[in-house]
Specification:
The complex is a heterodimer. Chain A is mainly beta. Helix content of chain A is 8%, strand content 31%. Chain A contains seven helices and 31 strands. Classes of the chains: A mainly beta, B alpha+beta. At the A-B interface, helix 4, helix 6, strand 21, strand 22 and strand 30 of A face helix 2, strand 1 and strand 9 of B.
């Protein structure tokens, strides 16, 4: 959390909070829920059913970047809201902005559509000077977050965490309980980012393959020829293997609870205590890879829902996801919470320490990931290889129509639908299912690639994390602690291709952006399987408002309930949705610029 | 690089265009090829996208669209803004373009010219409508005016512009003049990243005419070339000073025309300039 800087007095926030300071000191004091400000990352001491939230702009300087940030209560992130399952909460959101409307969306919260906070879909937004009152019953527990859904306010600071106490005793209750909100900070306006990316898609990428990096690549590839061949392959496709994040650390400072790395957010513990860390990725464009060197992390919750504990060294958190982990530091020393951006252009950092003011070494960043043909949806094919080199043993005769397909060309063709039945760990439904299959997306102005061999990547922790020697969480390991409530098989499958043209910076589904597409209509009460095929070479965190997405990850009835699901490049995955919430809902990629440039659909439940 | 350039010279823009459009054409056939693959047991005849465009538009509350993916943008770039120096004579050259519009429809303004001994020549200004037709290519059509210290000519223009295979920037335009003559211009460039900010860019532009126009130093056939090898340093993306060697010269019949006019038929020059955009 962050107060406005006071440069006039020569006292900037930067100097005000040094080292493991304010957060830790305040953390030691028990503060009532009404008290303000609460130390950043501290969960309020008690729940409250009524909150008055004021949205305004405030001049904030972090890492020499000054922004008149839209925020709640003058802090970035906004206050942590603590609710109780079963309560009816009342949230009075007042817009004190001068000339722009605002909105707050309660991310992952199940509520009536009119309370969801998406202008145009749920309501008409909150005009300047007005107050909108959100009222809804809280039917869930866990860690969530909220953010603006108006303009680009979310990218500039209008976000915060929500902690909901369960009605039943919390199996993961810890004496120390911190929220860790990860985000970005920049003084570049999101509109400028979009405009720059429309002109030059690699505008913010300064870690491309160059002549200078060729010797290193040649060593890695086992020869100059191999390295050059790989480069030619990518340049023939007019894509870049180094395309990891669209917007990078060249303009972003990565924040942990509103603290830049050198400000070092700090959480206190007593050796031997169990410490719960509620991670929220509130960034607009950045995935983080999180580890705490020296500590085992026990992943106990994903997107607000308890999962069977998984011990890991590291996990990747997509934009808008949340993960709760429990650590138990036994030594009386400091530990660094290290969250490097997926593209390794920067990191957020904080410290867990027995006393304020302590620090621990910050590990060096890993090498940046490089995309491969798997990300291009070519399965395990090596560049230039054809189908003959592939292991087709798992496929039955009926599934492979090899004769009908031309796999020799790399640019076109499509075989996404022949390959997946055997990979699906769920039993295929016995009855005939209605399928909305758009077919392979066209290669056109809005789409530059078709994943010919989309593969199941749920067992992969993600690009750049596969051979680190560390135990890294993957989606397959997420197992809910309770079986799903809806045991019905799906009666309908909706297949969606995630598409885009990086060169023109256009994003969408099925080769179309939002403005050229119709809504997705769902029938109230039906059970739908969403299948996502990612034809792009980037990860997309896909978020369905209002309803749970039950990830089909091989855990049977114990599949995890999520609100945001990472679709890895070149992959195919599916999840089940019980359509139990009538109204208009948003469905989109949570990378803000992707959403804003077309990877968004309206879902109408009636 | 050289091979690609030669290839570009050989192909007239008219023959290039169908090849570029191939991207969208091929997809039609692949769609039918996979139709059989989808059926696992029960036969299916048609694809249906759950988000297919709908004839009944969604009524958004307050008429608020949740995202704005249809905005217009405005950018301009000066690729060349440079002084060229040689013992025989120095000159100044610019080559830039600006565009305004959406993902599909844009208006382009292109301009280039050379100032030599206080005299402006090779002044070429085009106003084009640009339509995106494939992942990487746009069709552009409009007017070209040769406005400089020579006689003025006006042309109708139709061409393609985009990113060819191997990330080769490419433009090819065919022109027809108000006097019924034809011309073609082909331009290409390629960025070699030496480091992430130090970039070596070979670039070339060729002009071809069906008939000679001695007043404008144009000869029938391949008439002139303007090429450069520029080494730029991107201080920031939008500002990159560069050093270069450039060559501007007349070829074949135009070379004889210029020679007879006692003009300079071609010169290699040391060049300094700035590439910038907004």
């Amino acid at each position: 959390m962050f107060t406005a800087s006071r440069t006039r007095d020569g006292l900037t926030r930067r100097r005000f909070v040094t080292g493991c300071g304010a957060g830790g000191l305040l953390a030691a004091l028990p503060l009532p829920a009404s008290a303000s400000p609460v130390a950043p990352g501290m969960v309020p001491a008690a729940t409250s059913a009524t909150w008055n939230l004021s949205v305004g702009r405030r001049r904030i300087e972090i890492d020499h970047k000054v922004l008149h940030a839209p925020c709640i209560g003058g802090t970035v992130p906004g206050p942590i809201l603590r609710w109780r399952e079963g309560d009816h909460v009342t949230l009075n959101v007042t817009n004190t902005l001068h000339d722009e409307e605002t909105s707050i969306h309660w991310h992952g919260i199940r509520l009536p559509a009119s309370m969801d906070g998406v202008p145009g879909l749920s309501f008409t937004g909150i005009p300047p000077g007005e107050t909108f009152t959100y009222r809804f019953p809280v039917q869930q527990s866990g860690t969530y977050w909220y953010h603006s859904h108006s303009g680009m306010q979310e990218a500039q600071g209008l976000y915060g965490a929500i902690v909901i106490d369960p009605r039943r005793p919390d199996p993961n209750a810890c004496t120390r309980d911190y929220v860790i909100v990860l985000s970005e900070w920049t003084d570049v306006s999101p509109m400028d980012m979009i405009s720059n990316l429309k002109m030059q898609d690699d505008y913010y990428v300064f870690r491309q393959r160059t002549l200078a990096s060729l010797p290193r690549e040649a060593r890695a590839a086992g020869g100059l020829g191999a390295a050059l061949k790989d480069r030619l392959q990518w340049s023939r496709m007019r894509m870049a293997a180094t395309d990891i994040s669209d917007v990078t650390g060249i303009i972003y400072t990565y924040l942990m609870n509103g603290h830049a790395p050198d400000m070092n957010w700090c959480g206190l513990f007593r050796p031997g205590e169990r410490v719960r860390l509620r991670f929220v990725n509130a960034a607009s464009m950045t995935f983080f890879d999180i580890r705490i060197p020296g500590l085992d992390m026990l992943v106990v919750q994903a997107d607000g829902n308890d999962v069977e504990p998984v011990p890991v060294d590291e996990f990747r958190i997509g934009v808008a996801e949340t993960y709760d982990v429990i650590v138990q530091p036994r030594d009386s020393r400091a530990y660094t919470i290290f969250a490097q951006s997926e593209d390794r252009t920067g990191h957020a950092r904080g410290t867990l320490a027995p006393q304020a003011g302590m620090t621990a070494p910050v590990p060096p960043m890993d090498p940046r990931p490089v995309r491969t043909m798997i990300d291009m949806g070519m399965g395990d094919m090596k560049p230039g290889h054809d189908m003959k080199g592939m292991d087709m043993s798992g496929m039955s005769e009926e599934d492979t129509h090899m004769d009908d397909m031309d796999m020799s060309g790399m640019d076109h063709g499509h075989m996404g639908h022949m390959d997946m039945e055997h990979m699906d760990h769920q039993a295929p439904p016995a009855h005939v299912m209605e399928v909305d299959d758009p077919g392979p997306p066209p290669i056109n102005v809005e789409n530059q690639n078709v994943a010919k061999m989309p593969v199941d990547r749920l067992g992969s922790p993600g690009d750049g994390l596969e051979n680190t020697g560390r135990r890294v969480l993957n989606y397959r390991q997420l197992r809910a602690t309770r079986p799903g409530t809806d045991r019905r098989p799906p009666s309908r499958e909706i297949i969606l291709h995630l598409t885009g043209n990086m060169e023109r910076y256009i994003w969408g589904f099925n080769g179309r952006k939002f403005s050229e597409s119709g809504p997705i209509r769902l029938k109230l009460g039906e059970r739908v399987r969403f299948t996502l095929i990612n034809d792009t070479m980037m990860e997309h965190p896909i978020h369905l408002h209002g309803m749970w997405s039950e990830l089909e990850n091989g855990q049977g009835d114990y599949r995890p309930y999520k609100h945001t699901i990472i679709s890895q490049p070149g992959s195919r995955l599916s999840y089940l949705v019980t359509v139990d919430a009538p109204g208009m809902w948003a469905y989109h990629c949570h990378l803000m610029l992707h959403m804003e440039l077309g990877m968004f659909r309206t879902v109408i439940v009636a | 690089m050289r091979r690609a350039l030669l290839l570009a010279v050989v192909l007239a823009p008219v023959t290039v265009m169908p090849a570029l459009a191939q991207g969208s054409a091929t997809t039609g056939t692949t769609a039918t090829a996979t139709a059989t693959a989808t059926a696992t047991g029960n036969t299916k005849t048609a694809y249906h996208a759950a988000d297919a465009p709908s004839s009944t538009p969604v009524v958004y509350l307050g008429n608020m669209k949740p995202v704005m993916d249809h905005a217009s943008y405005f950018h301009g770039i000066l690729d060349e803004f440079e002084g060229r120096y040689a013992p025989g004579g120095s000159d100044f050259r610019w080559d830039g373009e600006a565009w305004y519009g959406t993902d599909y429809n844009r208006v382009w303004l292109k301009t280039e010219g050379t100032l030599e001994h206080g005299r402006l020549h090779d002044g070429d200004h085009e106003l084009l409508y640009s339509r995106a037709i494939s992942s990487y290519f746009n069709v552009q059509g409009g007017v070209r005016a040769d406005i400089d210290d020579g006689p003025t000519r006006t042309w109708g223009a139709l061409g393609v512009q985009g990113l060819a295979l191997y990330e080769f920037e490419f433009q090819a335009t065919a022109y027809v003049s108000d006097r019924g003559r034809f011309a073609t211009r082909i331009e290409g460039s390629y960025d070699f990243l030496l480091t992430n900010r130090l970039i070596l860019q070979p670039q070339a532009e060729f002009n071809l005419y069906t008939k000679s126009d001695p007043a404008r130093q144009a000869g029938a056939g391949l008439s002139d070339v303007d090429a450069g090898l520029r080494l730029r340093y991107e201080v920031w993306r939008k500002f990159a000073p560069y050093v270069a060697v450039s060559y501007a010269g007349y070829l074949t019949q135009a070379r004889r025309i210029v020679h007879d006019q006692r003009g300079e038929t071609g010169a290699l020059r040391f060049t300094f300039g700035v590439r910038s955009w907004f």
